Amino acid sequence: MSRDLKGKRAIVTGASSGIGRAIAADLVKAGVRVVLASRGADKLNEVADALRAAGGDVLAVPTDVTKPDDRSRLIETTVSAFGGLDLLVNNAGVGSWGHFADSTEPICRTVLEVNFFAPVELTRLAMPHLTRGNQPALVNVTSMCGRKGMPAWPEYSASKFALVGISEAWRAEFQRYGVDVLTIVPGLTNSGFEKNWLRNDGKADLRFDLGMTPEYLAAKITDAIRKNRTETVLGTEAKRLLRFNRYFPRLTNWLLARKVKKLYAGK
Hints:
By secondary structure, this protein is α/β, with parallel strands linked by helices. 48% of the residues lie in helices and 13% in strands. Helix 1 (18-29) packs across helix 6, helix 4 packs parallel to helix 5 and helix 7 (236-247) packs across helix 8.
């Protein structure tokens, strides 16, 4: 199928910066009416003002997706303002860059709360409205770490694996309601994500400056929504790693382990 985006009603979480902001801008360009959700009210309102100046029909709803009352208010405000919901883009997320042996239970719980439980419960609230939507779709922005767990990303990998897994379960379940479930699997992105990590003491040369731009990623995500692509892997290194891991999983694990040993030699 081909999804006509003009006039669609969408929620984008994590919309005040980075990938979320770029997704919202690209959807607005395609004629989508967008509700912007993020914790930072000031930055969110700045984004909303910029998109309105560009002719977009947008609404800013400051939201902490981990809080039940905020999630309920987000859905209720959207439905009240737009008369329904056609697209939910679960993009908000948090990372933690460091090895498990030095991590903590609070970090693990925070990452899982933001990256998994929050989008799951937001989806639960959105479903009654999506089922009545126009060509409705749920879009989960995950990570290549959700297809291949990576060292120094244990909590993040677990949270994204969980989101990929529940997306696959939902895909079959939600078909009886006519709601499509699309999974986005990005690789390295130059989005500023690393500025908000809970930890930043892993060892590796992560060249985010060489990653995909948020605008490039957003354009690909909009195209995936329009073309109704079930799963979209984005980024050369993500495609290369996941393909190599598919055919040579033991070798992939050995190479990753060797890399970690070298990074921590003499420690």
